[in-house]
Q: What sequence folds into this?
């Protein structure tokens, strides 16, 4: 069974990399994962080896072991639908005992980039452990126990969440979580640096390690230190505790496996209370007819489609975070009053969000076409999409502007910044609607990656179109910037509060007219391009 | 002059994708109030034909008239008369069934009270009233077909173009769809639908066109076309079936 498990995993790996739809992406993904994973593991080993025998190495080992376990726990949520050896129901039709499934899944989990990188990183414990023979021995036992702990917890998580993860909600959770994991490093990094500076990195590490060393991975990682200090019985107890945790998880896994194999998917869609297409709060804002319908649909999608939500958050909230929080946390950091103008950045990003609106709708765009897209209808489609973005982004701009003004004291810049921001928003929405009709590109349907733009150089196309919109915004808004800087002065920008929205609305409407003509004439061509589904 | 009794008239319809001619000159005449079947093997050009007939795919050449209105010269006028159920295209799945119908009604500028009343009746008829507030993304294939058909019917079109409406649909849902469509044609509506299921086409359709390689190879009233045989036999004869070698699969069931 063990040989079969390894052979099955190997066959699955080879099959995923074989040529075919999306194979290039998978190959690049595997190669990237291998470089990052193994690179991280080698770095961990080298780092721990260079600190061998020191207190920092001991603390770092505890944090490393815990981090690896946390990573393994999250992993099945991210890879559940793509890893065929995670879902027990896929083996349900075969005459296998629970023990067989346990071996197939457990041993299968030991082959791949993640387990090899984990094993390598864990070997850092042996490298860091010092020169006592007893501590080497303890470390050599602790490493496989940690790996077993990782696999057992990861598979228990997968089995207990199987019903949820097989469902549409589980997939949504995976998309959002993947995006969160991808960007959280960027967010946490400045905060960690700040913490490190204020108290000393060693102190922070020691504090974290002292808490974590009471948990199973921490117990395993701290065992060699005890052995080195001559407290061999206590080290043995730590190993025993780790082994018991593994055994308990295996027992729990076996129990949940039985249920996971038989259970049907979770009922994924509890009936919602019927409020109609237009959210109740917005019934007085959104017009009836086609404009309101498209706007309401987009707003519903923002709330219900994790990919849209992630894109909005990463496009608007995160840039704001970097502009505001990161400078505040840098050494001697303070924000200049002029930073109030960062609201203009949010306006640009929001506009870019509309530049592939038909691609985001995908082949569902046929519903617009089937209902007719003459000039009137086409204009309403584009207006509706813009209205949805305006309803979300303008409040965001106001809140961010007020926050920035409160933090920096730059209240006098606020009117000019908001006025200019609204002008930019209007222009960028207009430019984006032209791009949306001229160069729509399909997004991979059912993709796990919220940032995925599809294969075949579409990422490059998206970036080029984004720069195009930016260039248009820069050129068309230059007169307004000149007016603000040279004539009014940035801290006397109140006239822009009226002029900016008018300027943006006028230029945006001009661009939208062009987009309207194109959408009413090229509707079938747009749908045809979206029907070529990537990945 | 007698009024044109044809609900749909297709002339010289062509479409190529690169070097491949998906539709190589199709002519169709569909009488008003008719249940019209478009049958053919995979890749025969059925979906391409229906997409061009409904204004979703621009033809390289040819005309499509629906109730005498040219789909490509007066799309607004034609699309008001057409209901579509496409194959392989998505719905706005993050809306609930009820919201999807409201969305479609608003797109077509129907009054809100009319949309609400018709949506309720359509959901009830298709057995989706209990699932009306669930997201379409969580619907089964049969439920999706039914809600898509409800969308196609909402604006009370004169002609329905349905691409594989019975594909992957359970028998109960298929019966519901059949009943609704029969009622639709009995009141003067016209249904053009594509299908692989010959038995179904034979039972439902008044007229049929057999398409192969992007051309119509036979068309006419079902009874005339069958000439006493089963439609399945006629279809296989016209389209050509591959025989299997002597001795192949001899072991099976032995």
A:
């Amino acid at each position: 069974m063990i040989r079969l498990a390894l052979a099955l995993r190997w066959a699955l790996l080879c099959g995923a990399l074989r040529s075919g739809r999306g194979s290039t992406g998978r190959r690049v993904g595997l190669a990237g994962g291998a470089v990052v994973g193994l690179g991280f593991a080698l770095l961990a080993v080298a780092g721990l080896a260079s600190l061998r025998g020191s207190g920092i190495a001991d603390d770092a080992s505890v944090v490393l072991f815990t981090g690896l376990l946390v990573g393994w726990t999250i992993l099945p949520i991210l890879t559940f639908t793509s890893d065929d050896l995670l879902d027990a129901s896929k083996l349900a039709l075969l005459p296998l005992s629970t023990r067989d499934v346990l071996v197939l899944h457990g041993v299968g989990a030991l082959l791949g980039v993640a387990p090899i990188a984990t094993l390598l990183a864990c070997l850092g414990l042996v490298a860091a452990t010092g020169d006592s023979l007893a501590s080497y021995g303890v470390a050599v036992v602790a490493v496989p126990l940690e790996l077993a702990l990782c696999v057992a917890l990861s598979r228990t998580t997968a089995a207990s969440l199987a019903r949820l993860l097989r469902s549409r909600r589980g997939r949504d959770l995976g998309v959002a979580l993947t995006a969160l994991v991808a960007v959280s490093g960027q967010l946490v990094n400045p905060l960690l640096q700040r913490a490190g500076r204020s108290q000393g990195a060693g102190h922070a590490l020691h504090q974290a390690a002292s808490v974590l060393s009471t948990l199973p991975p921490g117990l395993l990682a701290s065992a060699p230190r005890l052995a080195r200090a001559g407290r061999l019985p206590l080290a043995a107890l730590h190993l025993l505790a780790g082994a018991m945790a593994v055994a308990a998880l295996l027992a729990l896994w076996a129990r949940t496996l039985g249920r996971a194999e038989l259970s049907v998917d979770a009922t994924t869609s509890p009936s919602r209370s019927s409020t109609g297409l237009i959210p109740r709060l917005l019934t007085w804002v959104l017009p009836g007819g086609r404009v309101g319908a498209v706007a309401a649909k987009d707003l519903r999608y923002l709330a219900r489609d994790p990919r849209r939500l992630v894109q909005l958050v990463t496009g608007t909230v995160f840039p704001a975070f970097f502009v505001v929080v990161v400078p505040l946390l840098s050494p001697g950091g303070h924000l200049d009053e002029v930073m109030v103008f960062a609201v203009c950045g949010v306006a640009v990003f929001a506009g870019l969000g509309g530049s592939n609106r038909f691609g985001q709708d995908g082949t569902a765009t046929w519903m617009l076409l089937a209902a007719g897209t003459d000039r009137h209808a086409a204009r309403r489609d584009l207006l509706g999409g813009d209205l949805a973005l305006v309803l979300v982004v303008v409040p965001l701009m106001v809140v961010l502007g007020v926050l920035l003004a409160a933090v920096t004291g730059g209240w006098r810049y606020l009117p000019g910044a908001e006025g200019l921001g609204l002008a930019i928003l209007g222009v960028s929405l207009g430019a984006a609607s032209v791009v949306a009709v001229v160069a729509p590109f399909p997004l991979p349907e059912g993709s796990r990656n919220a940032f995925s733009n599809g294969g075949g150089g579409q990422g490059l196309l998206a970036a080029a179109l984004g720069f195009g919109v930016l260039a248009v915004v820069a050129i068309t808004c230059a007169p307004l910037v000149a007016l603000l800087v040279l004539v009014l002065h940035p801290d006397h920008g109140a006239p822009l509060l009226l002029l900016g929205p008018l300027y943006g609305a006028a230029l945006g409407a001009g661009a939208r007219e062009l987009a309207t003509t194109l959408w009413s004439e090229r509707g079938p061509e747009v749908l045809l391009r979206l029907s070529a589904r990537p990945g | 002059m007698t009024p044109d009794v044809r609900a749909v008239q297709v002339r010289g319809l062509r479409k190529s994708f690169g070097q491949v001619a998906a539709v190589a000159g199709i002519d169709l005449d569909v009488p008003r109030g008719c249940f019209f079947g478009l049958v053919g093997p995979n890749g025969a050009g059925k979906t391409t034909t229906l997409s061009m007939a409904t204004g979703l795919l621009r033809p390289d050449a040819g005309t499509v008239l629906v109730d005498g209105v040219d789909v490509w010269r007066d799309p607004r006028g034609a699309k008001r008369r057409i209901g579509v159920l496409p194959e392989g295209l998505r719905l706005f799945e993050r809306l609930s069934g009820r919201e999807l119908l409201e969305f479609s009604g608003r797109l077509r500028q129907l009054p809100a009270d009319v949309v609400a009343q018709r949506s309720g009746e359509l959901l009830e008829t298709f057995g989706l009233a209990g699932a009306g507030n669930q997201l379409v993304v969580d619907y089964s294939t049969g439920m999706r077909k039914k809600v898509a058909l409800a969308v196609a019917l909402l604006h009370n079109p004169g002609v329905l173009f349905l691409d594989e409406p019975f594909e992957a649909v359970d028998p109960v849902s298929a019966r519901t769809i059949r009943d609704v469509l029969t009622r639709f044609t009995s009141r003067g509506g016209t249904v053009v639908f594509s299908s692989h299921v010959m038995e179904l086409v034979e039972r439902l359709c008044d007229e049929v066109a057999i398409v192969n390689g992007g051309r119509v190879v036979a068309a006419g009233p079902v009874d005339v076309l069958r000439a006493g045989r089963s439609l399945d036999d006629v279809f296989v004869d016209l389209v050509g079936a591959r025989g299997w070698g002597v001795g192949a699969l001899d072991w099976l069931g032995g």
